[in-house]
Amino acid sequence: MPNPAILTVDDDPAVSRAVARDLRRRYGDRYRVVRADSAEAALEALRELKLRGEQVAVLIADYRMPQMNGIEFLEAAMDLFPAARRVLLTAYADTDAAINAINVVDLDHYLLKPWHPPEEKLYPVLDQLLAAWTASAATAAAELRVVGHRWSAPSFKARDFLARNLVPFRWVLADEPEGAELLAAAGVTANDVPLVVTADGKSLVQPTTADLAAQVGLATTPAADFYDLVVVGAGPAGLGAAVYGASEGLRTVLIERRATGGQAGQSSRIENYLGFPDGVSGAQLTDRARRQALRFGAELLSAREVVSLEDAGAARVLRFADGSSVAAHTVVLATGVSYRMLPAPGLAELTGRGCFYGSVASEAPSCSGEDVYIVGGANSAGQAAVHFSRYARRVHLLIRGDDLTRSMSSYLIEQIARIDTIEVHPHTEVVGGAGQEHLEEVTLRDTRTGETRRVDTSWLFVFIGAEPHTDWLDGAVARDDRGFVLTGPDLTRGGRRPAGWALPRDPYHLESSMPGVFAAGDVRAESVKRVASAVGEGAMAVSLVHRYLEAQ
Ligand SMILES: Cc1cc2nc3c(=O)[nH]c(=O)nc-3n(C[C@H](O)[C@H](O)[C@H](O)COP(=O)(O)OP(=O)(O)OC[C@H]3O[C@@H](n4cnc5c(N)ncnc54)[C@H](O)[C@@H]3O)c2cc1C
């Protein structure tokens, strides 16, 4: 495989040559520096690299170029090489445009011209971006192939895990010639899917998510036995806690059972998060936070589920399902919530085979030209309806109430009203589902008349409220009757401290009934279920961690 490329584009040939010269001087032995004098020529070069199966590590684009400016170029380049790091070269006068580009194209850095001396202004930035690119799972798994059946739940689980962790892979159907060849080469049959074939030709038959994580370069075991802070759950609250904890010098480990981003990572467009006037995809926002946490030195363990929490004197011990454990002075519980299952008969068996919980953005292209049913009237269902309408023939949004006004933000109601292919069905609930290999039909009931009808569909996406799944905390920390973790003032209602509380002070604001264990985000009782508040609580929990540690 040839060296990965660094591509630089500037319409001023003198500047273009100068950037390329400086890049070659430092990186020429490990990277191929590709130079273009226009955005069109650069995109053409990228297409060629893509066809040849080569990798691109960094894209450096001048902002002011005729026909297509640097931001537009980077946006188009993202479709070809989404994992490449993006840098905009700007004049001082264009700083505002560069700052806006941070949202539009998830810009990693902007460099002001002139960049001399490069040792101070260019190389430190590039060194960091190249290190991040090299360390990213994307490079480790560039050639990853997943062989499976379209309607196999284990195949879906492997695909969903890789997609949510932003690991690029190629999906190969078991009954295609390439799939059959790979299965034969691995000595297995189509009954053994998913088969995952790594870049270096290693075959993994029906891997667990932990096996998969380890193969694609995601860490799964802690590097140390003891930390200042363990954060459980890598949604916005956990990422917030990890960024602030690590940046403030705490030895921090973040543990996630599925994929960084949590619920927010599933959101196709978050429009109400501060600082992103054009909205931002949840995956993009949380991937930036993940990189930020890693840059500050936080450790991230993927595909690891915490199953118990114990008070061991000054230490707090968290145990994994395989019996191993990790200990720390303090813990932030940021385990959020998960979708409630639809209790309709027939659907449980079809989960992952046509019936999905959450939007599962990776499935959207598979719905092209088909009818999709979405259950739920809150923003998450609305966002999914808008997202799926780009692919599906028709999106049916099923709600129990009269209309969306009580449960959905007005900006989304307006968007939905403008899309002809979305149909809202009020007073409708799903009461059954059926299918052999996969979902083939659902039964709908009119909540006013009780009348039922069957509709043919292979796609049902369910968004019917969420619950915290905190059974594993039973007996460790106090929870409310729905399982949300009680903290601070909610623990001392009536003037009494929680049972077993031995300290001569009340629990701090986000502190649970176990001293030194805090809860942040959706898992906390009475929390506001929003990205901004989850991030804020993650940050606030860290300041309380400091207060706790100082008093020890
Ligand atoms: C589709 C969708 C769209 C949304 N849109 C918006 C929006 O536009 N604006 C907005 O403000 N909010 C939105 N929300 C709500 C917002 O995403 C949540 O409020 C926010 O993600 C809560 O963050 P959190 O970190 O508390 O929990 P979560 O995001 O739920 O993250 C918790 C994480 O903990 C992990 N975890 C759970 N248990 C364990 C365990 N035992 N061990 C290890 N890991 C564990 C989970 O896998 C998960 O990754 C949306 C939600 C959804 C589902």
TrEMBL record:
Chain positions with 4-aspartylphosphate modification: 62
Reaction equation(s) it catalyzes: [thioredoxin]-dithiol + NADP(+) = [thioredoxin]-disulfide + NADPH + H(+)
Residue ranges of domain Response regulatory in the record: 5-128
GO biological process, one term: phosphorelay signal transduction system
Superkingdom as given in the UniProt entry: Bacteria
SUPFAM superfamilies named in the record: CheY-like, FAD/NAD(P)-binding domain
GO terms, molecular function: thioredoxin-disulfide reductase (NADPH) activity
Record PROSITE patterns: RESPONSE_REGULATORY
UniProt keyword list: Flavoprotein, Oxidoreductase, Phosphoprotein
Pfam family of the protein (one): Response_reg
Name of this chain's protein: Thioredoxin reductase (NADPH)
Organism: Micromonospora chaiyaphumensis
